[in-house]
Design goal:
Layout (H helix, E strand, L loop, with lengths): L5 E3 L8 E6 L2 E4 L7 H14 L12 H29 L9 H26 L2 H4 L1 H21 L7 H30 L5 H30 L3 H25 L7 H14 L5 H7 L11 E4 L10 H12 L4 E6 L4 E7 L4 H19 L13 H8 L7 H25 L14 E2 L5
Helix pairs in contact: 2-5, 2-7, 2-8, 3-6, 5-6, 5-8, 9-12, 12-14
């Protein structure tokens, strides 16, 4: 009886191995080994520096992001070498008049300032690092360049050396917290097989290799630039510009498939204008990385009830919304152009997304010059125009009508979002932790 052969492959890009069985038992077919050395080198590089199962085990943007990230890491290491040279000169290395005690105290004060800065930054901006990871990644690397600039500047002003070093340390504190947090967010996005640890480990391996290469370049470069300040500043300028450009490109190629406020705004805007939701790739390419979004109305999720319940009418409106099945209480201010949303204790991502879409609809209605141009809103234009002309600050009638419109079309919008490739099981809308519960006295 002829037995079929077995073919196996390690991953999707390795050579095939074929096994067959004859009268002597199972055997492996001989393969051409003329390219074994090159194949083994490629195998080592892949296994040492890429996650297992690459490219299927990571997101589609993995390679392009890592290439730009490698370039920025190299540039950062080079400018860091220049900064170290300047710092050593500033603390007195090579100066017979400098004392070890003075250098130690300077270093301790510098480090202490940085530690305090890390705590304060994590306290004030910790939750926003997830929501706007791309923005904070760029901010972190910009602050890294600011810190390097200050390190190079410090020896030129001996009287202010300690002050400049402390300010530099504060900048590095932002880099340390924001850089590590956004890196974790990107790794979570890239890992597609619950392989965050592997992706993170290989990312560190890549960075170590780049830093080693930069170290070798630094060993060659440092003796040649020492004592030539103009050359140091020229190299700093070149590598800093390249560093910032590489970072911007790295952040630009990342395609997040979860909504933050900017991405949700672009998705809802596209649905209202064209009747369909754009996918993650076109939305991410249009997402503003440094400036704020173009929202007419801002909104805050998970706020305390004190922000909403200003009168008995507000209380009655909250009760009415609960009877309609809403798991949130919403209030709008025309003068502040802000929507506050309180969340019920058992509200999940779906209810929170619905409340955010109400706020986005409200903002679009207020900014749109011609509602008839929207495939969805054109059918409601006759009712909306009088409501938009009202001058009462809370816009209660407009808000109620907007909620009913959102309720009618929410299921269709969700289907469009899922079909376009958006992950709706969780979001990054910046939700705070306040929750309410109705209790019968």
């Amino acid at each position: 009886m002829n037995r079929p052969s077995l073919v196996e492959q390690h991953g999707s890009r390795s050579p095939y191995r074929r096994y067959f069985c004859d009268s002597g038992g199972p055997k492996r077919a001989r393969a051409d080994r003329s390219g074994d050395l090159l194949a083994n080198i490629r195998k080592f590089i892949k296994e040492a520096f890429l996650p297992q199962g690459y490219p299927e085990s990571v997101s589609e943007d993995y390679l392009s992001y890592q290439l730009w990230d490698t370039l920025q890491a190299f540039c950062s290491s080079i400018t860091g070498t220049l900064a170290t040279l300047a710092i050593m000169k500033g603390v007195g290395v090579g100066d017979s008049a400098a004392t070890p005690l003075a250098a130690t105290i300077t270093w301790m004060l510098r480090d202490g300032t940085g530690m305090m800065g890390k705590i304060l930054f994590a306290w004030t901006r910790g939750s926003d690092l997830d929501c706007n990871a791309k923005k904070w990644r760029l901010v972190a690397d910009f602050m890294n360049d600011v810190a390097t600039f200050l390190d190079l500047l410090a020896p030129l002003f001996p009287l202010f050396f300690l002050l400049i070093m402390c300010v530099s340390s504060l900048s590095k504190a932002v880099v340390g917290i924001a850089g590590a947090a956004t890196r974790a967010a990107f790794v979570q996005h890239q890992a597609r097989r619950d392989n965050m640890a592997d992706v993170s480990a290989k990312d560190n391996s890549q960075e170590t290799l780049v830093n080693l290469a930069a170290l070798l370049v630094g060993l060659f470069m440092t003796p040649r630039v020492a004592g030539h300040p103009k050359l140091v500043w020229l190299l700093f300028t070149i590598f800093t510009c390249l560093h910032l450009f590489a970072n911007y490109r790295a952040a630009s190629v990342v395609t997040m498939d979860t909504f933050n406020q900017n991405r949700l705004h672009l998705a809802v805007e596209g649905y209202l204008r064209h009747g369909k939701v754009l996918g993650p790739k076109p939305i991410n390419s249009r997402e503003p990385l440094l400036r704020g979004g173009s929202q007419t109305v801002t909104y805050k999720l998970g706020v305390p009830l004190a922000k909403l319940l200003k009168s008995s009418a507000d209380y009655d409106a909250a009760m009415d919304g609960t009877q309609k099945g809403y798991k949130y209480i919403i209030k709008f201010s025309r003068s502040q152009r802000c929507v506050w949303i309180a969340l019920e204790k058992d509200s999940e991502a779906d209810s929170q997304l619905k409340a955010a879409i109400v706020a986005e609809l409200l903002g679009y209605m207020l900014s749109c010059q011609d509602l008839t141009s929207s495939p969805l809103l054109s059918r409601y234009a006759k009712h909306l125009y009088p409501l938009l002309q009202e001058h009462n600050d809370d816009g209660a009638s407009l808000l109620n009508y907007t909620q009913s419109v959102a309720e009618s079309h929410y299921a269709d919008m969700v289907r469009e979002m899922e079909a376009a490739g958006w992950a709706l099981s969780h979001h990054l809308l910046g939700t705070d932790e306040w929750r309410y519960t109705w209790m019968q006295d």
